Amino acid sequence: MPHNLSVVLVTPEIPTNTGSIGRLCLATNSTLHLVEPLGFEINDSRLKRAGLDYWKHLQIVRHKSLEHFFQSISQKAPMVFFSTKAKSSIFDQKFEEGSYLIFGCETKGLGEELISKFSEYTFRIPQYDNRVRSLNLANAASIAVYEAIRQLGP
């Protein structure tokens, strides 16, 4: 099944979210990219608890900055950004093999400049009650990864 999907967390702040996303990545044979600065230490017990004993098996790549991340991937790599501010729905996106699914930090999301620069590649996950500001980062990553897998085939 491997589709070479990657989940990219830009400056994640909450270790339990990152641990859960790490577990998701292992379950789906996806790679986890962490863009620094991180809001926690990689050996944080909360991170390990959320990822349980799977963390040591995870394909993980750390990047010193967003600029370093962009430099490390092919210019032709399919990138899909996620933001509550996007105009297009995730269901409008046609995922490709090797896609990088890019998420901002829990409190700020992706920066306006990034959203503007990549607006045609930025999507939102629909929410049907406006009392909810956003979904939990781990939930959003799960939805995106499994939508990509659904489209690409098991």
What would the keywords be for this entry?
single chain; 154 residues; alpha/beta; seven-stranded parallel sheet; 5 helices; Alpha/beta knot
Brief rundown of the structure:
32% of the residues lie in helices and 18% in strands. The protein is of the alpha/beta class and 154 residues long.
Q: Your description of this structure?
A:
- By secondary structure, the chain is of the alpha/beta class.
- The protein has one domain: 3-Layer(aba) Sandwich (Alpha/beta knot).
- It has 5 helices and 7 strands; from the N terminus they run E-H-E-H-E-H-E-E-E-H-E-H.
- The protein has a 7-stranded parallel sheet.
- Helix 1 packs parallel to helix 2.
- The longest helix is centred in the last third of the chain and has 16 residues.
- It is globular, with a radius of gyration of 14 Å.
- The termini are close together.
Low-confidence stretches: none
Characterize the biggest β-sheet: 7 strands, parallel
Proportion of residues in β-strands: 15-25%
End-to-end gap: 6 Å
Write the layout of secondary structure elements.
Blueprint: E1 6-10, H1 15-27, E2 31-35, H2 45-51, E3 60-63, H3 66-72, E4 79-82, E5 88-89, E6 100-103, H4 112-117, E7 122-124, H5 137-152
Parallel strand pairs: 1-2, 1-6, 2-3, 4-6, 4-7, 5-7
Helix pairs in contact: 1-2, 1-5
